[in-house]
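I'll show a typical protein example:
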Amino acid sequence: MVKIEIRKAENSDLRDIANIWRRNIKTINTASDIARLYHYFKKYFLIAVIHKEKDRGKEEHGQGYDGYDVIGFVAGAVKDGHGHVSGIAVEREYRRKGIGSSLLRRLYEEFYNDGFERVTLEVRKSNKEAIRFYERQGFKPAFVIHGYYADGEDAIVYEKRFTFTDENPISHGKEGRVDGS
C-alpha cells in the first residue's frame, strides 16, 4: 500500500510545487511568482506527498518510510474577501485517485475556519478536463473574463458556496489522507 498524505506546504517544498505547476498548468507564473504567493498565503498552500518506503536492508526501528515526493498541490489565496484557488495540479500518473478532491477539501476547511463562505477560481475555457473536475466538486460557472490569459484565451470564473450544517460545516468525505496503490 502506498501512503499519500495531505499537509501544509513548507518553504522546502516550493521547488517541487513550482515544477509541478510548470509541468501541469499552462501559465506564465515563474518560481518567483509562486514563492511570492506562498509568502503571502502560506496557510492556504497544501501539498499531497507520497512517502517512499525504506529499502528493506536499511530499515531501522520505527516507520518504514524514508522521505517523500510531492505529487500534487493546491495554492489558495484571499481575493476580494473570499477564498480563491490560485492553482491546483496533481502529477499525471496520480490523477483520478481522489488526490485533487482531497486537496480541495482541506483548502475548503482552511477557508471555512477563516470565515469565508465561498471560493472562486479561474479556468481556461479550453481546459475541458479541469472544467469537468471542478463541476464534479460542486463549482458553478459565474462569468467569463475575455482575454484573461497572456495568450488571449478566455477564463471562466467558477464559484462554490460552502454548505453549512450543524454536524458538518463543509460537506465532504474522507479527510487528510488518501490511500492508493
Summary: The two ends are 5 Å apart (CA to CA). Residues 99-113 form the longest helix (15 residues).
